[in-house]
Design goal:
Shape: elongated
Oligomer: single chain
Number of helices: 13
Strand content: under 5%
Distance between the termini: 39 Å
Number of strands: 0
Largest sheet: none
Order of helices and strands: HHHHHHHHHHHHH
């Protein structure tokens, strides 16, 4: 008769714990498009963090003698300004790099704020139910009745422009999707045996939601949060394009698009390069969100 010692059982337990993680990693690595998207996001994150070290010039430094210089590969361009200059002689490459900071900060900040609000609302609504559920979900229905971008325009127009105002507005207008998903998951979990047993031994409602329910909704929350980052980046660019985002002296892709729209026929690079940066970043975030959804789906491990 073979006796299994605790020391011998430990490696097996560790391997079992690594199983789902390894399967998730294999699923992610099989998705070549997702790997490329993650690489793009890593580059954008490096640009955002180390912009002062990477950008060749001050993004707001003006030189009217160099205004509307074309990119380096085009006739009349210069290697000193690889992506050309804008209507005020500012270096386009430096401005695109610095614009990454605002886009990622707004996207991540808005998604985090909306995620916190939506998770709290969804947990309370799904776990307690009753009148609280009805009130919270009717509030969500009221907010969904207004287009998010119009609601954001109205609030920003009332509060005024500013980076933190934009983050707050996009966060407070984006919590509904988190709340609905969390509520659905919690309602399916609250009648499970492990929740019933926790109540029976006297575990408080707060502890049940924090220790047992919240970990089980993290996977869909990560997917929604990733997709919301892309939506917030585009929304911030839209607000800045309309002059209702961050102040004009702060470099954003949206304000660069607004400045360049008058020069599309003669100096295309002023609007095209920030537009391409916005498109690539949003696309990379969306692809990453789709990949995370596949990883969170247990059926994906068996493909």
């Amino acid at each position: 008769m073979t006796v299994t010692t605790p020391a011998a059982a430990a490696p097996a337990a560790t391997a079992a714990e690594r199983g789902p993680r390894a399967a998730a990693l294999r699923t992610l690595l099989r998705n070549k498009l997702a790997v490329v998207a993650l690489a793009v996001l890593a580059i954008m994150l490096i640009f955002a963090i180390f912009a002062p070290l990477i950008a060749p010039y001050d993004p707001n430094a003006q030189d009217l003698l160099l205004r509307l210089k074309p990119p380096a590969w085009q006739s009349g361009g210069s290697g000193a300004h690889l992506l050309g200059t804008d209507q005020l002689g500012r270096d386009m490459l430096s401005r695109v790099i610095y614009g990454t900071r605002i886009s990622l900060l707004v996207g991540a900040g808005a998604a985090l704020l909306a995620g916190v609000i939506g998770t709290v609302v969804g947990l309370a609504s799904g776990y307690f139910g009753g009148w609280l559920d009805r009130v919270l979900m009717r509030l969500a229905d009221v907010q969904l009745a207004f287009p998010a971008i119009l609601l954001a325009l109205a609030i920003v127009g009332f509060l005024g422009s500013g980076l933190w105002y934009v983050i707050l507005v996009l966060g407070f207008t984006g919590w509904v999707s988190y709340a609905r998903v969390v509520r659905s998951e919690v309602m399916s979990l609250r009648s499970r045996d492990f929740i019933t047993e926790a109540r029976a031994i006297g575990v408080t409602d707060g502890a049940i939601m924090r220790r047992h329910l919240l970990p089980n909704v993290m996977a869909p929350l990560a997917t929604i949060g990733t997709l919301h980052i892309a939506a917030a980046i585009v929304a911030e660019a839209s607000l800045s394009y309309l002059g209702l985002g961050v102040p004009k002296e702060t470099v954003t892709w949206g304000s660069m698009l607004a400045d360049g729209q008058l020069y599309l026929g003669t100096s295309w690079w002023v609007a095209v390069f920030p537009g391409v940066a916005l498109m690539i970043t949003s696309l990379a975030v969306n692809i990453t969100g789709d990949a995370l959804r596949d990883v969170a789906d247990p059926k994906a491990y068996r493909r």
